[in-house]
């Protein structure tokens, strides 16, 4: 039986702070601790009556006790109970009670229903049904401290502060879903030069940095040269230690005397020329080479593409003396190699690949020609980590956006 019961809340300091009317069973009030609360184990907080607060705790499997604010009607469900390891604290206006004292309060169909951990009983069509409700305490996240959260049930957020060497300085939010799972992205490692620029208080300048490309699951460290950190669009490059060259044709050859002789004549063509690549530009998201970027080239003539070559000396052996379509890729000591899944093909008119040599994972050489034709990759030139090389840690800067 329930009665309209008058509670006078008197705290330990001896002053009357509140006087309210609560519709509840007076016998239950023997279990209520006045002006105290349990802190640090919150499942969720709602606004309701004392009786409904006790019922709500009974409905939820994870709830073991509750705090009730007599001034505001705030009901705080706890996943722990008063003990020596989790003692109550003085809190004027609050009442505290264990769940075990309120089991008999529930008289609806949920009374005889036992739910699993993280579940809650709700009444549907006069039947008690268990639903996923609590995501439990959010777990630790790599590169973050303890999360901040005000509840662990559906709709509540847990906010993580990401920081540390090589980590993007940001707040990451996980949200408790109806299926009982925390969902959201994780703290990120620094994977682009733009993210380095965003650490503006450190005034980082162009140079070599350690990045953690997402395409490598942010676990592989790559040495990247950041160019243009004083602009809004900095770009990523890999510094090439050894010689990387492209040498395309300069003449057009033709045959005489029934193909016995080869005659060469000079002409102009946008691809004619050569270039030495000192750095190759890469896309930090998928780690493919922008073969057309010639920002860091020397001895360059014409429009050259990294890892591609072009010539106009025909297929005849008589023109060997004029053949110049040569390219060399050498990624030694960079910590990266060209993926073996990259396919190399010929293109143009009457192309021929005189030789293609991959003497090691790091070095690729090719000699190609046509009338006019050449060779290069089918699709993108992808890079993958070189597991045989340990690039010195002190050869690049580990960014720390504190």
UniProtKB/TrEMBL annotation:
This is GON domain-containing protein. Residues 23-101 form the Apple domain. It comes from Lottia gigantea. Keywords: Metal-binding, Signal. It comes from the Eukaryota. It holds the Pfam family GON. Residues 195-388 form the GON domain. One of its GO terms (molecular function) is zinc ion binding. Residues 1-19 form the signal peptide.
């Amino acid at each position: 039986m329930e009665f309209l019961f008058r509670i006078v809340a008197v705290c330990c300091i001896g002053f009357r702070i509140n006087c309210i009317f609560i519709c509840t069973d007076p016998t239950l009030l023997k279990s209520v601790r006045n002006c105290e609360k349990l802190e640090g184990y919150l499942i969720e907080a709602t606004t309701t009556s004392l009786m409904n607060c006790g019922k709500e705790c009974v409905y939820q499997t994870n709830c073991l006790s509750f705090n009730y604010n007599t001034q505001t009607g705030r009901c705080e469900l706890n996943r722990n109970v008063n003990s020596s390891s989790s003692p109550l604290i003085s809190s004027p206006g609050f009442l505290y009670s264990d769940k075990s004292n309120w089991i008999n309060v529930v008289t609806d169909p949920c009374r005889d229903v036992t739910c699993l951990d993280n579940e809650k009983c709700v009444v549907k069509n006069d039947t008690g049904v268990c639903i996923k409700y609590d995501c439990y305490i959010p777990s630790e996240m790599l590169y973050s401290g303890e999360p901040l959260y005000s509840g662990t049930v559906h709709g509540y957020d847990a906010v993580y502060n990401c920081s540390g060497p090589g980590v993007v300085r940001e707040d990451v939010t996980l949200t408790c879903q109806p299926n009982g799972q925390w969902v959201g992205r994780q703290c990120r490692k620094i994977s682009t030069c733009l993210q380095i620029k965003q650490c503006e208080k450190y005034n980082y300048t162009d140079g070599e940095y350690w990045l953690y490309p997402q395409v490598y699951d942010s676990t592989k460290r790559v040495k990247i040269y950041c160019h243009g950190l004083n602009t809004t669009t900095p770009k990523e490059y890999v510094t090439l230690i050894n010689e990387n060259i492209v040498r395309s044709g300069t003449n057009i050859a033709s045959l005489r005397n029934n193909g016995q002789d080869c005659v060469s004549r000079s002409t102009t063509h946008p691809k004619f020329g050569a270039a030495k690549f000192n750095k190759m530009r890469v896309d930090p998201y998928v780690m493919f080479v922008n073969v057309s970027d010639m920002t860091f080239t020397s001895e360059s003539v014409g429009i050259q593409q990294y890892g591609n070559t072009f010539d106009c000396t025909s297929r005849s052996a008589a023109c060997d003396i004029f053949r110049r379509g040569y390219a060399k890729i050498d990624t030694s000591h960079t910590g990266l190699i060209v993926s073996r899944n990259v396919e190399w093909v010929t293109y143009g008119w009457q192309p021929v690949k005189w030789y293609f040599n991959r003497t090691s994972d790091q070095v690729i050489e090719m000699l190609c020609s046509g009338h006019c034709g050449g060779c290069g990759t089918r699709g993108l030139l992808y890079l993958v980590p070189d597991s045989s090389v340990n690039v010195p840690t002190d050869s690049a800067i580990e960014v720390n956006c504190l």
